[in-house]
């Protein structure tokens, strides 16, 4: 049995290092962390780690998680400021603490206590992008600034969700990196890291640090991870759903399609691009997107280079709505 690593397209920069970990007998968990670490360090990726786009106040806040499919161990950090290595810190939470998720000040404290190197994550390039699209909501950290932001948050979210200029290696402005691996022993692991939605409200956490939403791995059935509008994956428990659908007998393709169809049912005025990568228990890879032209990368131990593959497309507006969005009788009474 040879190992395999699967990643979102922006994981291309780290996938060979991840496969190398498997080649020398390392675990799936070691592999996904090694791959993710390189994406977090990539200054050209404004959706993950160093050089990520900041929140409303110009602060870069990172979310990350790991899950070990053997024993379902997991760790995550959210709204981490001042440290690049969010994925290593998520692993520390899993390995060292009797907790799963540590957020904000606590996460920065843990990073300091465990000896991670502090770093200013806001690069000049990311700051220029942040300022250029802030418009009239100029963030100065004051209560006034927050009020202005709140009053125009709908426009900001809509504008940034559809801003094609902000895509990085095929990922949207609320992009993220996903790594999944299966090692020679059949152990499966998943890692997810992101700087979250650019211009987000301070402290906002998406799906990436939420086990079951943006990340799930179970040796018995497979693994899945998400990129895109995290609030959607949070509400549908998307990564866990994909794995559970396989548990109850669906093929990988059907599990992905069903999870995407669930996302399409959400009552969400900000619904935007969603993407999932997944593997089944044997390491067979698959991926889906709401958007045409999206890809993912995969590489086995026996391959000389990674392969970029198209994602299956399940458009949000191509799915018929179920009773979930049926109008209430009171709606028609008040709007005859
Ligand atoms: N999927 C990343 C986020 O919403 O923060």
Could you give the order of the helices and strands?
Answer: EHHEEHEHHHHEEEEHHHEEEEEH
Question: How does the helix and strand content classify structurally?
Answer: alpha+beta
**Helical residue percent?**
25-40%
**What's the overall geometry?**
globular
Q: Which CATH architecture is right?
A: 4-Layer Sandwich
CATH topology: Glutamine Phosphoribosylpyrophosphate, subunit 1, domain 1
Query: How many strand units?
Result: 13
> Rg to the nearest angstrom?
19 Å
The major beta sheet can be summarized as:
8 strands, mixed
Percent of sequence in beta strands: 15-25%
What is the terminal separation in angstroms? 64 Å
- Arithmetic mean of pLDDT: 89
State the domain count: 1
- Major sheet strand order: 4-3-2-6-5-1-11-12
Give structural notes:
- This protein is of the alpha+beta class.
- It contains eleven helices and 13 strands.
- The strands form two sheets. Strands 4-3-2-6-5-1-11-12 form an eight-stranded mixed β-sheet.
- Helix 1 runs antiparallel to helix 2 (28-40) and helix 9 (238-247) packs across helix 10 (252-264).
- The longest helix is centred in the N-terminal third of the chain and has 13 residues, at 28-40.
- Residues 174, 176, 194, 196-197, 206-208, 214, 227-230 line the site of glycine.
- Glycine binds next to strand 8.
